[in-house]
Amino acid sequence: MKVKKPPKCTHPDCFQCPYTDCRYDRLEASDYTESNNRDYFLYFDSTGRKLHKPVDKTYRNGRQAAYARTKRKYYDRHDYNQRYYKEHAEEIKKRQRDAYDTEKNTIQSRKWRKKNADRKRRYDHERYLRRKANGEFTRKKEEVMRPINEQETSISYSRDGETATVYTSDSTVITKLDKLVNRKRNTCWKVKEEHRDQEGNLVGKTYETSKKLISFRSEMQSQRSDEQKAASAERMRKMWEQKRNENN
Fold first, then answer.
1. What is the rounded CA–CA span in Å between residue 194 and residue 167?
2. Which of the 8 DSSP states describes residue 48?
3. Distance between CA 182 and CA 127 in Å, rounded?
4. CA 179 to chain centre
5. CA nearest 239: which of 112, 107, 231, 223?
6. pLDDT exceeding 90 applies to what percent of the chain?
7. What digits encode the pLDDT tens for the residues 42-56?
8. What is the pTM of this model?
9. What pLDDT does residue 1 have?
């Protein structure tokens, strides 16, 4: 089995190694040379004759591999790797999906988030500021070329049907419904048709959705005072502080 040299390994100066146990115990070319010289010296010192070692295939292959590691050539495989991935993309993704352990990954993700909560919070805030500075949150909204007193919204559906059709020329309603359509997990709202005049200006949109999402209210929502809003904000702030303390 091929074993890569660990990043902090100080071989051959093993006395400075930061690991408690050796993680790299392969012989290098210099180790083979030192071993041979020691065998030659000890044999000559004890017998007065030179040592002639027989041919050992395992020894020869090990020494050649150790020498090759020190003289390894660099090959640029960037283009090859890109071509291989394009040709076998589905196969690679399938292997990754089959080997993916959802439960194990969830446990690891929770541990990491708990350990690095402050770090992730700082990163998210800095990323938000960078994206805001680059103007990623400024969306170019196409204005409805129709006077306000002519903008309207109509909802129609049949009693035995499952879908409802919403036509609107109200720019405020169009903004709200476009946000529902553009949600990542949206499965209920979709744009059926865009209505434009002869000059190509937007005058309205037609949307389709499930009839179950259309509801009628019996009362208007009560308006909260400034004191109520401040009390609600204070409760939310205390709740988030308690969660941060639990994570830490």
1. 10
2. S
3. 22
4. 24
5. 231
6. 29
7. 777 777 777 776 667
8. 0.38
9. 43
Q: Is 171 contained in some domain?
A: yes
- Give residue 168's Cα distance to chain centre: 38
Respond yes or no on whether the N-terminal peptide bond of residue 12 is cis (omega within 30° of 0).
Answer: yes
Residue 192: pLDDT band with limits 50, 70, 90: very high
**Res. 2: pLDDT tops 70:** no
Q: Is residue 129 situated within a structural domain? A: no
Mean pLDDT of 183-195: 88
H helices within the chain, ranges in order? 29-47, 57-70, 78-87, 89-99, 102-115, 117-133, 171-181, 226-247
Domain interval for residue 167: 148-213
| Domain assignment of residue 118, yes or no | no
- Bridge partners (DSSP) of residue 210 are 163
Residue 219 in tokens: 């009362």
**What CA–CA distance (Å, rounded) separates 189 from 178?**
9
User: What is the rounded distance in angstroms from the CA atom of residue 9 to the CA atom of residue 11?
Assistant: 6
Q: What gap in Å lies between CA 129 and CA 137, rounded to an integer?
A: 11
135: tokens are 């103007």
Question: 159: which DSSP letter?
Answer: T
**Domain count across the chain:** 2
